[in-house]
Amino acid sequence: xxxxxxxxxxxAKKLGACPAAREKRLDRIHGGINSGRACWVxxxxxxxxxxxxSHAKKQLACKRCDFYKKVHSEEGNSIESTNSLLNRLKDxxxxxxxxxxxxGIIIGSSGLLGGALMHYFNTKTSGNIEVLGPNSKRLSxxxxxxxxxxxxxxxxxxxxxxxIAPLDSDAQLTLETNYLGAVRLAKLAMGQKIxxxxxxxxxxxxxxxxxxxxxxxxxxxxxxxxxxxKLLAEKTLQYMHExxxxxxSIVRLAVVYGNHDHKxxxxxxxxxxxxxxxMPFMLSKPGIRHSYSNTKxxxxxxxxxxxxxDEFTGQAYNFVDKEPVELVALIKAIKVYLDVKAPREIYVPxxxxxxxxxxxxxxxRRLGRLGVEIRLPAELQFMKSFxxxxxLSIEKLxxxxxxxxxxxxxxxxxxxxxxxxxxxxxxxxxxINTFNEDIQDSSSPAGEFLDSPETLLEAINKYSHKPLEDxxxxxx
Length: 476
Hints:
alpha/beta, two-stranded antiparallel ribbon, 3 domains, 18 helices, globular, Rossmann fold
């Protein structure tokens, strides 16, 4: 139609490429590329000098179109019905204008990092991206058929993988989730010629200071299951890039911190052990430092590398705050915020801490025989790192086209909000008693729920309760 909005058209930069040229779920229909010969069911095409909306609004105009008539004439009885084409687009009425947007899939969307990515892409971008976050019941990395079926159904434009097996998983689960699952996703991304963003960990690096992206550990059977699986995944993705053209990028994180994680793991485990007063003494020593990664900063970086594939394809980047954190200083800061006495400033040597850990494991096995189920925190498998420095260099990141918009934000500047969020949550779940925030005053719904449930019931049934007022008139 000489609209200039083809992939390399004269107007593509100003007006954007035509959705029919981008929509891959109708690729090869009627012998066309992407949706080039089924454009009448794709929303947002620029026909007759004006942007067209959904299929329902544009169908009359399309039937008068010379190209529409041409395709129908050439295909004859082989023409795909409109209903069939719409079904291939996954019921466009259920997801508004999905055919005018880039579609991404985030694996591991229920975690701290995945949740931050979902929130960012659905609320903070310019509106030209939509992301899906299938849970493990709908798409299990351990089930190849699940992955193929989901990708065939949605045909994404990019893929982000931040899923991991629990740190204390056995070899089989870790292998299938962290390694084989990552490779399966990469193969599908490669087959569909879409970018694949893979999240890795500082666990693939040795202990030491100012570690670069190339300072990875040698593959060894003595590595933890977690570190081994992450290292193997990085190696295979690099091989697939060099030999088969996989378009991938690796984002390597260190200790991750941020709000809205429902699990007690990583940094939250340290916070919980201090809040719960279960760490009587310092399991570290002065001067031990580690790098930290802020979950709020990750999504803008991912968006940037998606928009700049030529620069970032086939590359791994350490993504951590510029200044590393001394573990003892962080523990002391948390103690001050919580106004607690433990852990006392008595530094337990590593050999003694290791002996205590071994004894606890022995005791837990004994109690297990009596039917008492107790599990040590999975993070204790990395206890040696509490006594050794590991800091990551961000020189490569700083030399890239990406710039940290909030370099002043660190785990210390975020500590107040993090502590308040998690302690209030753990208080609600009856996991700790340290937090003194009064959340059950008589004027709150919780206070009514506890002290006068009859009054609460009457107010709710009469639609006069304040938390429900916004729903009285329904959605507008």
